[in-house]
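From the pipeline queue, job 12 of 40. The input is one protein chain; the requested action is below.

Action: predict structure.
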Amino acid sequence: MSVQKPLEKDEYVLILEDIWKRFPGVVALKGVSLSVKRGEILGLVGENGAGKSTLLKIVFGIYKPDKGRIIWKGREVSVENPIHALNMGIFYVPQELLLPTNMSVAEAIAIGVEFNRSWQFVKYRDIENRAREILSKLGLGDLNPKTKIRDLTTAEKQLVLIARALAMKAELLIFDEPTSSLSISETHKFLNLMLELKKSFITQIFVSHRIEEVLSVADRIIVLRDGYKVAEFDNTEKKVTLDEVIKAMIARDIKEFYPKVKVELGDIVLEVQNLETENLHDISFTVRRGEILGIFGLLGSGIYDLPKAIVGLQRRIRGKIILEGREIRIANPTEAIKKYGILYVPEDRRNLGLFSILPVRHNVTISSLDLLAIDKILNTINMVKESSMVSKLIKALNIIPPDPSRKVAYLSGGNQQKVLISRAFSRPLRVVLLSEPTVGIDVGAKVEVRRLMVNMAKQGFGVVLISSDYNEILGMSDRVIILSKGRKVAEFQREEATPDLLLKYASR
């Protein structure tokens, strides 16, 4: 086999020319072309369904293009499968980190290195020493290579995958939503690592819904929309703005990104007095009808514990929950919604909110079966009434595809979130607790979810928006409460709040 000469810094590692990909009923990619140089960080952004994942899977050999050329290091190639891609030097880090939990860190780094013939492990001690050497380069010198994968944080698991890529001498790293499950500090460390990898001339493709992060590290940004490449920005000489990228992605006016409107506020609908749990200390606040109350905090602040304590998922040590002037005691989320009209939409929609193996129809109506029952003793459902409710909500919330029988697992993240939020419109409610409602969904879906928040406020719900995204908090809230280390440290009217102020108090 001929040996290729090393690429110069400005030579292209990967070129895609006129890539087309069709699936039954949809054309996912329509003549997409792109190139990436050695040592370059290429940002790839677009809404769900824009074609990003399909493009990545073509590069990594999971799909084959119907038309177009792939040029790798100057030669036209056909990437047959992921093993072929790994042999070529292409490494894919997926959003869902699939690592054998019973393996040690050293074993997880070594697995697959057999594909790289330049490095053959002989002894387990050699495996550990090589793993320790690579981990040290990634700033994980303190991590014991004998540690089991199951005992690692998400950020550490991600670094183990990157360590494996370095062990395999990868030349192109593809990151698919790498920061979606990381804390703010872990995200900063990851982005700094990307810049360090760049110094070693490792080429990177960075896919993320968090456009600010892409802008902070990418040399160029390519925007996909509806299967087309619609824009390309050079981020080296003139810094690209968030507004420019969003406009290209959604083809809408940037003012629509936070579609908040003024709603006349009513009486206090929910009051929390001196709430105390294992992680929360003396929390008090009120929410009015028609109000969107923003609750902001960083990782470990307790913002995710707050709604859980209200709906009975966490034990209250003391404190009162008062609904429309009357103290209530909520045993669980089912009682919260059915007896008191309080809906909790959790931050982890897949594991805490949705029944992924069930169809859209059942996920929409799961909180309203008592209203649809013909016979509550026999649990007989009025199918006509259920079908009508589901059809109306699918249309009203623009759930795509509009198929009640489609399993939720097969929907995009944005449409999964709309299915979860649809429960707020399936029965009379007083309060909706939305925890990170736009995390992990694309820009267009974020806008749609925020419009739904506004609709809730217009209908007189008290809306509590829990978010670690200060832009979202400032863009959507009437009033802002800040938590730090389980305590309420500040409260501002929206017009008083600024990003600096939020971060200042949240960091206390």
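Job complete. The chain has three domains: 1-89+172-251, 95-170, 268-356+428-506.
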